[in-house]
Amino acid sequence: MDHNDKDAQILDQYKSQHKGLAARLGHIGFIWGGSVQSQRTKCGKPGCACSQDPQARHGPYVYWTSKKKGRTVARLLHPPEAEILTEWVGNRREVDRILEEMKKLSQKAYKVMLRVRLREMKG
Ligand SMILES: [Zn+2]
Fold first, then answer.
1. 3 state DSSP class of 54
2. Which parts of 1-123 fold into alpha helices (H)?
3. Which of 18, 43, 112, 123 has its Cα between 20 and 30 A from that of 97?
4. Mean pLDDT per segment of 10 residues, for the chain of length 123 residues?
5. Residue range(s) defining the domain that contains residue 61
Protein backbone atom coordinates (compact mmCIF):
# COMPACT_ATOMS: atom_id res chain seq x y z
CA MET A 1 0.00 0.00 0.00
CA ASP A 2 1.48 3.40 -0.94
CA HIS A 3 1.50 6.51 1.20
CA ASN A 4 -1.57 7.99 -0.49
CA ASP A 5 -3.71 4.92 0.12
CA LYS A 6 -2.62 4.76 3.73
CA ASP A 7 -3.35 8.45 4.30
CA ALA A 8 -6.70 8.16 2.51
CA GLN A 9 -7.59 5.35 4.89
CA ILE A 10 -6.57 7.41 7.93
CA LEU A 11 -8.59 10.38 6.66
CA ASP A 12 -11.66 8.19 6.15
CA GLN A 13 -11.31 7.01 9.72
CA TYR A 14 -11.08 10.60 11.01
CA LYS A 15 -14.06 11.61 8.86
CA SER A 16 -16.27 8.89 10.27
CA GLN A 17 -15.21 9.75 13.83
CA HIS A 18 -16.00 13.40 13.07
CA LYS A 19 -19.41 12.45 11.69
CA GLY A 20 -20.09 10.45 14.84
CA LEU A 21 -19.35 13.50 16.97
CA ALA A 22 -21.52 15.72 14.75
CA ALA A 23 -24.36 13.21 15.14
CA ARG A 24 -24.04 13.44 18.92
CA LEU A 25 -24.27 17.23 18.63
CA GLY A 26 -27.42 16.82 16.57
CA HIS A 27 -29.19 15.07 19.42
CA ILE A 28 -28.41 17.59 22.13
CA GLY A 29 -31.23 19.69 23.53
CA PHE A 30 -31.21 23.33 24.57
CA ILE A 31 -28.01 24.71 26.05
CA TRP A 32 -27.26 27.29 28.73
CA GLY A 33 -24.08 29.10 29.75
CA GLY A 34 -22.45 29.24 33.17
CA SER A 35 -22.89 26.59 35.83
CA VAL A 36 -25.39 25.45 38.42
CA GLN A 37 -24.30 24.68 41.95
CA SER A 38 -26.07 24.07 45.23
CA GLN A 39 -24.97 25.42 48.56
CA ARG A 40 -26.02 25.14 52.17
CA THR A 41 -25.57 28.44 53.97
CA LYS A 42 -25.31 30.04 57.39
CA CYS A 43 -27.89 32.74 58.01
CA GLY A 44 -25.95 34.76 60.56
CA LYS A 45 -28.86 35.11 62.99
CA PRO A 46 -27.63 34.93 66.56
CA GLY A 47 -28.51 31.63 68.25
CA CYS A 48 -29.38 29.80 65.01
CA ALA A 49 -28.01 26.25 65.01
CA CYS A 50 -26.55 26.77 61.54
CA SER A 51 -23.65 28.75 62.94
CA GLN A 52 -22.36 25.73 64.90
CA ASP A 53 -23.70 22.64 63.18
CA PRO A 54 -22.92 22.03 59.49
CA GLN A 55 -25.97 19.69 59.36
CA ALA A 56 -28.23 22.55 60.48
CA ARG A 57 -27.18 24.87 57.66
CA HIS A 58 -29.99 26.22 55.49
CA GLY A 59 -30.77 24.97 52.04
CA PRO A 60 -29.56 23.52 49.85
CA TYR A 61 -30.03 26.58 47.69
CA VAL A 62 -29.34 26.22 44.02
CA TYR A 63 -27.48 29.00 42.24
CA TRP A 64 -26.71 29.70 38.66
CA THR A 65 -23.30 31.32 38.30
CA SER A 66 -21.49 32.86 35.40
CA LYS A 67 -18.38 34.93 34.79
CA LYS A 68 -18.94 38.40 33.42
CA LYS A 69 -15.81 40.41 32.62
CA GLY A 70 -13.86 38.32 35.15
CA ARG A 71 -16.45 38.72 37.92
CA THR A 72 -18.68 35.89 39.02
CA VAL A 73 -22.37 36.69 39.07
CA ALA A 74 -24.72 34.39 40.98
CA ARG A 75 -28.50 34.08 40.90
CA LEU A 76 -30.65 32.04 43.26
CA LEU A 77 -32.88 29.63 41.34
CA HIS A 78 -36.36 28.43 42.21
CA PRO A 79 -36.79 24.63 41.96
CA PRO A 80 -38.31 24.61 38.45
CA GLU A 81 -35.59 26.98 37.20
CA ALA A 82 -32.92 24.81 38.81
CA GLU A 83 -34.33 21.69 37.18
CA ILE A 84 -34.38 23.20 33.68
CA LEU A 85 -31.02 24.94 33.91
CA THR A 86 -29.23 21.95 35.47
CA GLU A 87 -30.20 19.96 32.41
CA TRP A 88 -29.37 22.69 29.91
CA VAL A 89 -26.00 23.52 31.49
CA GLY A 90 -25.26 19.77 31.34
CA ASN A 91 -26.14 19.81 27.66
CA ARG A 92 -23.80 22.74 27.09
CA ARG A 93 -20.98 20.94 28.86
CA GLU A 94 -21.54 18.01 26.52
CA VAL A 95 -21.40 20.40 23.53
CA ASP A 96 -18.12 21.84 24.87
CA ARG A 97 -16.65 18.34 25.26
CA ILE A 98 -17.72 17.29 21.77
CA LEU A 99 -16.35 20.49 20.20
CA GLU A 100 -13.01 19.91 21.94
CA GLU A 101 -12.90 16.38 20.54
CA MET A 102 -13.77 17.72 17.07
CA LYS A 103 -10.95 20.27 17.27
CA LYS A 104 -8.40 17.65 18.32
CA LEU A 105 -9.55 15.31 15.59
CA SER A 106 -9.42 18.11 13.02
CA GLN A 107 -5.84 18.90 13.99
CA LYS A 108 -4.88 15.30 13.37
CA ALA A 109 -6.78 15.30 10.07
CA TYR A 110 -5.10 18.56 9.05
CA LYS A 111 -1.63 17.02 9.26
CA VAL A 112 -2.64 14.08 7.10
CA MET A 113 -4.54 16.19 4.57
CA LEU A 114 -1.66 18.63 4.23
CA ARG A 115 0.69 15.72 3.60
CA VAL A 116 -1.61 14.43 0.86
CA ARG A 117 -1.88 17.87 -0.80
CA LEU A 118 1.88 18.40 -0.73
CA ARG A 119 2.42 15.03 -2.41
CA GLU A 120 -0.18 15.94 -5.02
CA MET A 121 1.64 19.21 -5.75
CA LYS A 122 4.91 17.39 -6.30
CA GLY A 123 3.00 15.20 -8.72
ZN1 LIG B 1 -29.45 29.82 60.44
1. helix
2. 3-26, 79-122
3. 112
4. 87 98 97 96 93 93 94 95 98 98 98 94 82
5. 3-122
